[in-house]
Amino acid sequence: MSLVSLPFYIFMCVLLLLYYRVRQKDQWKVLLLAGLFFYVWSDPFMIIFLLISVFATWKLMLNPVKSHFIWVLVINLGILIAFKYSVNLGVKDLAAPLGISYYTFMTIGYAHDCYDKKIEPQRDLFRYALFVSFFPQMTQGPIGVYQEMMPQLEEYHGFDPDNIKKGAYRILIGIFKKMVIAGRVAYYIDTVYSDPEGFPGLTLIIATFFYLIELYADFSGYMDIVCGISKMMGINLKENFKRPYLSKNIPEYWTRWHISLNEWYKTHLFMPCVTSGFNRNFAKGLAKVFRKAKKGTLRLILPTIIVWITTGIWHGARLSYLGWGVYFAIVMLLSFTTQSYVKKLNEKIHWNKDNVFVKVFQVVRTFVIVGIGEVIFRSESFSDAVAIFRKIVTDTRINASSIAQAMTPFGNGNQAAASVLILSVLILAQLIIEIAKERDEKAFTGHRYIYALAMMVTIVLFGVSGASNFMYQTF
User: Fold this and answer.
1) Is 460 left (phi over 0), alpha (psi -120 to 50) or beta?
2) How far is CA 176 from the centre of its chain?
3) Where are the strands (E) in 67-189, listed by range?
4) Got the DSSP string for 368-403?
5) Is residue 86 within 8 Å of 71, Cβ to Cβ?
6) Residue ranges of the alpha helices (H) in 26-99?
7) Where are the domains of the chain?
8) What mean pLDDT is reported for the chain?
9) Angle between the 146-154 and 125-133 helix axes, to the nearest 10 degrees?
10) How many CB atoms lie within 10 A of CB 84?
11) pLDDT tens digit string along 257-294?
């Protein structure tokens, strides 16, 4: 059931009526049944694996000893690996259960927190099942943290018209991003990246720029929708994006993009790796070679490599995903290891970080570095990525002919010109909103009805119908 479809919004209307009509003690039960109904509607057979994951994790973590935690990892990661990497395991390509990556993160995160004594195990199977199956966040996140989510899911939420208004407005923003911005650029990207050898460098640069726009509009648009849905029920989900393309460096970028995933990796993989005995010994070995390096920096090297290779592999069984992970591992390591040298250089040349031109340079530089990584990620194969980089370096010219050729994926003549004009206005409008929000979080909230009307008109006029699947559903 797509979150931008009529059946889903009928489902939401019925759910809200039931949610606010039942007794206080039954409200959480309505959410549980809604989550299970949503999953059965979307992926009826695969609910078996969700139930296995829920029951096994709950049962084992009633007594959170080390052996039980290991079994939670084996069961949940075993199911995930069997589906996501079935081709590499020598069997046919299996369709993965809906949201398996995300509810696996949630179950492992819960088990790890139980094992570390950060939380008490949930004794009620059905309440734990609600945490994992809360339908807005189950398929693409944000990745729920038990101690943050469970109190909200269990408590009673009375009807509040302000929550309905704020939630509906947030949903509309998400639909606008998905159907208008992401939907409009998708055809251009697919056309160019399906045949990278057939287009010159300028076209490939534009397609890559559009891909970064599509990624953000599609994924953050989904988050707007699910946060809006949850807000209507009085539940506040973790924000998952904070204007990442305005970041001044790569470490900052990864604190603004898919925030819940990065926090999960930091808590459940990165920090355990940093504090492990193996990593301490590894860092001591490096210290013998790099005698002037700081111990703290050396202890970050192996965990950073592990996290980014794991992140790349998590996206799927493709060399391009692994290459993307290796690329960002290298970029992050360079950021850590050169930090002190860059600081000294900035002091020597009197680099004013508050200067507006310096800020713009830093933002553009970060955007370009991210774009290089996303070329690797989006390419159908590693050889395609190499071909794209080669053509960008050797075959990029800006003249009337190359500009005309760059417009061909939009169509011909007036159709192409209209598409370029519409996209330029939409992307510029989104950029203005992002910059305004960076300065003041309350920007564009004072006249919601006017903005809502403008978005609805734009969706009707320029929205791409049929653009119902979100990109990160496949992960």
Assistant:
1) alpha
2) 18
3) none
4) HHHHHHHHHHHSSSHHHHHHHHHHHHHS---SHHHH
5) no
6) 27-42, 47-60, 66-84
7) 6-159, 162-241+389-474, 246-378
8) 88
9) 110
10) 21
11) 999 999 999 999 999 999 888 988 888 887 878 777 77
